[in-house]
Amino acid sequence: MTFAQQSFTVMDWSSSGSLHDYLLQKAHRQYDERRTRFNKATISTQSVITYGKAARSACLRLLGQMPVGGALNPVITGIVKQEGYSIEKVVYESFPQHHVTANVYRPERKGVYPAIVFLCGHEDPAKFTPSYQQTASLLAKNGFVVLVIDPLGQGERLQVTTAEQSRHERPGKKEHTLLNETSNLFGTSTPAYQVWDNKRGLDYLITRPDVDSARIGCIGNSGGGMQAIYFAAFEKRIKAIAVCSYLSSRERMYDIDGPTDGCVELPNEGVALMEMSDYLAAAAPTPLLILAGRFDSIDFIGTLSACNELKQLYTAIGSPERFKLFAYDDGHGLSLPKREAAASWFKKWLYHDSTFRRETPIPILSPEQLQATSTGQVSTTYPNEISVAQKNQALFEETAPHRKQFLQQPRTSIVKGIQALLRLQTVHTPVHVEYKPAYTQQGITYNKAILRREGQLPLPVLIVQPTVQPVGTLIWLHDGGKRKIADSTSLLQQYASQGYITLICDISGTGELEDPASLNETRYYNKEYRNATIALHIGSSLVAQRVTDMINLLDFATADSTMQSLPVTMHATGLLTLPALHTLVLDNRIKQLYLYNGLSSYKDILQKPTALNWYSYVITGVLNYYDIPDLITLAPPGTIHMNN
């Protein structure tokens, strides 16, 4: 940090992690409330059933809007014969012109068999992954038809990243996250699209003459384990479940590693008082096997905590034998002991057979031998393929009538609707000002203050007084931090000579409150990914958090005896422009607003999903209500000045 930067520092503690701590503390309070609710659920069989129903309803709300399905149009594009089983190469349509690639492993002998929906983890090859071939063949040899589905963004189903890029980058987690941020704008999600793909896969399975539709199981590993967790709550046709290398405690995972990729992050999960185990509680008493490595990267202490809760529920409902934890001294993934434990579990509950056939070595086939499309990618095999990115672009047009209807309401109703969407709360407690020693540079005195408000994030502010009679309050909010403006002495001297009291503030996530870049993975394309995700998780957003900051700043200014009667002008750059625009619409104390280099429409995010830092603008479901140009029309004429 340079001397000038130190000179503009206001906080007297290392504050770069303060926003993260603030959001995480809110999350912990939600989890505390959830624990209280859970403890009441274990009292009786009926309380468990009630809790499970509530969890399922919450799951459906959190997943959000699902696509509208059409004909499956399943095609078997090839068959590979193996010893004791065969592998069919299958393509079906999850929704019209959106193709899902899969392999079906089936026993060699003709007959009607129970089936397993196999959900892959984050491996780039997806269904081609060796351990998945080994698991599926083991299950087929034990008398199961196994559908192994390529997830979005993996295997033959790249949605955003090109095939050429996939050779150099791992697309799965990246694509899941890029698709999640655009989906969140409509109140849906990557998990919702994946659940839908898996549901349609199950729909396909039960059309097969070799499948007993009354005996369907589901297994998922790693990210596929989280898919299986969601699927357990969503799909009532599943009669036995195995989750490998993912069940843990979301609360602990946030503490230890922070949020992960978009296929396992659902906005509003925290405010809905949902933990990972609650999705599985929705499926109780369906037989449930948890497969875990004691040295897994997925926190094993969290796994034990989740399993303890599930054991309590299964015991209270009178079916303790239907729940089992199989833990092995290894790490992440479907190792041989876990594969055999899964085979034994499904044999027990779908065949009522306590025996199973152990694994023997199989030839591992190449992607070229197993691919279901002619080119290896749905995007190049099917000329009219509609990717999830394209589907979300179409949703923008489909939701236009909803936005029009929202904006036809009286202005007071619109404002209340925006406040409800942002989950803003009216605060009546005063803003307390803690002044720090001032700093003078080139004839300008920077008065330093920390704005504190009960239950709110403290904000660092620099205050520059005018050299003439005050005529107005000018608030400067730069997404690069207050020093970007504080260093502009000629600009500040101009404001002072014009009679402006200038407030230069670091809003959440900027300047002294900026989250360390090292804690935000670059593959997620966002420099504040963890805070954006946690904010959405607790039912808020970075936009809402920053609107709250700006209102607190306005409350400070209008309560101060020297500023309370002065008109307020606000300047905001980049990531702070959208919160500033919301603040103007919601709060009539801003008389002039200058915006620089901000997002002009959410349509830009949909059309350019790989651009940086889009998650900072995401408000869950916003495009069901309004777009950014709509906000501008709600402002008084002549108050907004845009400089892009």
TrEMBL record:
Annotated ranges, domain Acetyl xylan esterase: 89-262
Signal peptide stretch: none
InterPro entries reported for this sequence: AB_hydrolase_fold, AXE1_dom, FrsA_esterase
PANTHER family named in the record: ACETYL XYLAN ESTERASE DOMAIN-CONTAINING PROTEIN (PTHR22946:SF8), DIENELACTONE HYDROLASE DOMAIN-CONTAINING PROTEIN-RELATED (PTHR22946)
Protein name: Acetyl xylan esterase domain-containing protein
Organism, as annotated: Niastella yeongjuensis
